[in-house]
Amino acid sequence: MKKTKSLILVVTFLIVSFSIEGCVDSIDHLQSQFSQPVGEIYGSHTVGQTFVSHEARLSGVDVLLATYARENTQPLMFHLKSSPSNADDIVTITVDAVAIKDNTYHQFSFSPLPDSRDKSYYFFLEAPQSVPGNAITIWHSPYDADAEGELYINGQKQEGDLAFRTYYDYTLGAMARDVWDGVANNWRVIVVAALMFTLPGHALFVLLVPRYEFDLAERLIVSMGLSLAFVPLATLFCTLAGVGLGGAAIWAMMAVCVGISLISVVRDTVRERRLALGVDVTHVALLAIFALSLIARLLPARGWAVAPGSDSYHHTLIAQLIVERGGLPSSYRPYAPLDSFTYHFGFHSTAAFLHWLSGIGMAKSVLVVGQALNALSLLSAFFFAERLLRSKTAGLFSALVVGLLSVFPAYYANWGRFPQLTGLVILPIALALAIEGMERKGGSARYLAAAGIALAGLFLAHYRVLLFYISFAAVYLLCATCASRNNARAMSRIWLRLLAIGLLALALSWPWLQNLLRHPGSGSLILARYKSSRDFFSVNRLEGAVSFYSNCPLMALSILGAIWGLVKREKLIIVLCLWVAVLLLTSNPYWVDLPGVGLADYVTVLMSLFFPASIAIGFLAAPIERAKPRARLLVGAVLVALALWGVGRMLTIVDPRNVYVKEADEVAMQWIRENTPEDAKFLVPSVIYDRKLNFVIGLDAGYWMPLLAGRDTTAPPMIYLAERPGQKGLAAEAVTLSEASSAPDAKGALRVLRDEGVTHVYIGKRGGNIHPESLMGDPDYQLIYHRDGVWIFEVNYEGGNELD
Questions:
Q1: Percent of the chain surpassing pLDDT 90
Q2: Residues 237 and 279 in one domain
Q3: Residue 167 pairs with which residues in a beta bridge?
Q4: I need a labelling partner for 291 at 20 to 30 A (CA). Which of 332, 659, 757, 788 fits?
Q5: Domain boundaries, position 702
Q6: Distance set, CA 94 to CA 97, 100, 113, 303, 350 (Å)
Q7: Residue 524 pLDDT exceeds 80
């Protein structure tokens, strides 16, 4: 026994130490604007940059290098000093130029500098052995983009800044301090969010579901799923009834839910003469995994002004519209010329509820709800695996995979895929309730009611995830029918109960479905609107998620779990395997030469497979529950180590470059409000994402300007393809203006800007495809604002260039 304990301690210590020590390199400072290379670095030519380290334990500098698309052979040297005038190096690193990739950040890592907080540093690169034609270069902005740093060429200060980012070693102690500060400063929001995610659903739970069949953790998880369904349903029916929602109305709803829940708790306590909780060590472990997952999601977000990703703008916009209308809007005005509203709104109404309950700003509310849902998704996986595989160990491993090991759903934050995430949090709970309701021999009505409410909420949360539910239900029904083919009564019971769930969900969501049917020309996104092509469906759209460290191991384990489930003839695993096959086939019909575009795009399906994969891995781990105590103890130690390992990776999974709005942009937005006319229209950086669809996406904080500064821009919220435009040719106009943004100094571009009423140009801190050097000195543009990498120009149509 002593040997076993010693082995457990050694394994735990080694894995934890290896996973934590030096693995969490967090970005401290980021200068992402660049437009041209600084020139070849060779001989005595050097290029450097000063910067300020805001954190202790500075541990690395990334520099955006370029090779001129050739293979350079001479070594490159990196030097870190305290200042340009200091002769001594703090760090010197030499790298082989052959290993440098073109147009890629190269990280120069070094041992952490313990006392680096709030200190200035200077790095420079040289290549004494290089010659012209065999030398690398660095991307830079020729104009000052970083208020805290300065560019040096050959030791002389120059205008401009290099493209670089700095890292610091984020220690366990620093994490603990930041968690403590975060809880101390935001405890009211934490309490309100916990109540919002549980109380409405718990009130429904005690009214509908037999409490004695669930332990405390299961009750809370089901309550969470029902709460996420209740909020959009309440928003919908209050809107239909003409009841304006706001802080008072939402708190009144919460008070009613508190009353129902308290009555239930008191009644059950009196009946059983004790407070029945049903908590065991598994639930303590689940709570620990959830806490670590939530910390890993929220810690990196503490300095973000808005949620990351291109999708986050229209999500915040919709939530703001719900707040301003006191219910569901009928259009996107005054923020965008879109005269219909058909978008799924489950996530947005939840963000609006948190805003009403806590008083925090809408951008922060969207960010908090999105990251919280990301962590809550592991609870749904736990519930599904535990209930349907009849194993708490299976549930625990499924939760670990979803919360701390799998690249998805954590990576969703890079794009702002919060509605899809909301649907995938509800989906496992809705499916589990439906399956248990269909398989019960009696007393199923309340189960079916809960399942119907969850399904209606799922529909309002995300249309394509609803298709996942329907395809799962079809596969399950097929398997159940085959299994019950000799029992007509059992077969009819399953069919009728599933029909009852569907009819209840249809009745609850019918008013919204009518709205969708009234706007058949609007996208409504029930089906994917994208052309089925290998280019669009390429996994390259998953960006850095493809190379995440756990992808191959988790894929191998999930396949192994699926094979083992098929061998053991586990009904749930069989259904999951068929379900995944259906999802892959329906999203890629051309694989088998079928016509059509697919019910959902391939990438949406791929980034949702973490759920069935986690269940397969949970099934593989389920036999541990029957192992000897020593073996379970060893597995528990490994589980702890894996959880801590995962935290380190999750802390860095979101790239801060995906946050569009920086602090400098917030200052600029206030300046715009105070110093530009209300009818001003801004040209902002954007990219044409799909020419066939006329699909344009903004690239920096200018995208957020209608919401943050109240001014019109040339890049509408990306949801514009799914709604009825309020002006003719809106999509074509967006494409034309996006083309003009790539070369605003061209005569043809200036003519386009005049015809579309553009009065100003905005270039944000994040950087995009408009470069200030192309406008500086041009008589058609007048610089009226420049501060910390943000540029604002006024268009001068009376300038020096003739338009005609």
A1: 70
A2: yes
A3: 27, 60
A4: 659
A5: 660-795
A6: 9, 12, 19, 33, 52
A7: no
232 lies in the same domain as 372: yes
Distance CA 767, CA 295 (A): 30
- Tell me the Cα Rg of the chain: 28
- Residue 53: both structure tokens together: 């380290």
Q: Is the same domain home to 643 and 769?
A: no
What DSSP string runs through 85-126? T--S-SEEEEE-GGGPPTTEEEEEEEEEETT-TTEEEEEEEE
**pLDDT tens digit sequence for 243-276:** 999 999 999 999 999 999 898 878 877 666 655 5
Separation CA 342–CA 617 (nearest Å):
37
Residues 609 and 685 in one domain: no
Residue from 747, 673, 656 nearest 26 by CA:
656
What are the DSSP E strand ranges found in 405-488? Answer: none
Q: Which of 618, 650, 682 is the last residue of a domain?
A: 650
- The answer to whether 385 and 597 are in contact (CB under 8 A) is no
Collapsing DSSP to helix, strand or coil, 578 comes out as helix
The enclosing H or E element of 423 equals helix 418-439
Q: What is the rounded CA–CA span in Å between residue 561 and residue 105?
A: 38
The 3-state DSSP composition of the chain as helix, strand, coil percent (nearest 5) reads 55, 15, 30
334 in any annotated domain: yes
Q: Please give the pLDDT value at position 414.
A: 94
Residues 583 and 678 in one domain: no
User: What phi, psi does 120 have (nearest 5°)?
Assistant: -90, 145
Residue 51: Cβ-neighbour burial (10 angstroms; 0-12, 13-18, 19+): buried
**Model pLDDT, residue 108:** 97
- Residues 56 and 194 grouped into a single domain: no
Contact 427, 455 (CB under 8 A): no
What distance, in Å, lies between the first and last C-alpha atoms of the chain?
90
Label residues 695-731 b or e (16+ Cβ within 10 Å = b).
bbbbbbbbbbbbbbbebbbbbbbbbbbbbbbeeeebe
Q: How many CB atoms lie within 10 A of CB 291?
A: 14
pLDDT band, residue 283 (cuts 50/70/90): confident
Q: Flag whether 655 is in a domain.
A: no
Cα distance between residue 176 and residue 161, in whole Å: 34
* C-alpha closest to that of 265 among 321, 220, 301: 220
CB atoms within 10 A of CB 473: 20
Confidence of residue 535 (pLDDT cuts 50, 70, 90): very low
Same domain, 623 and 685: no
The token pair that represents 593 in the structure block = 């030469």
| Whether residue 334 has a cis bond before it, omega within 30° of 0 | yes
SS3 track for 256-295: HHHHHHHHHHHHHHHHHCCCCCCCCHHHHHHHHHHHHHHH
**How far is residue 669 from each of residues 322, 360, 565, 705, 785, measured CA to CA in Å?**
23, 19, 56, 7, 11
Is 19 inside a domain boundary? no
Asked, for residue 308, whether it belongs to a domain, the answer is yes
Question: CB-based contacts of 542: which residues, under 8 Å, 6+ apart?
Answer: 411, 603, 606, 607
Q: Would the pLDDT of 16 be above 60?
A: no
CA distances (Å), origin 390, targets 211, 314, 456, 625? 18, 41, 27, 11
The number of folded domains in the chain is 3
Question: Is the per-residue pLDDT at 23 higher than 60?
Answer: no
Contact 348, 317 (CB under 8 A): no
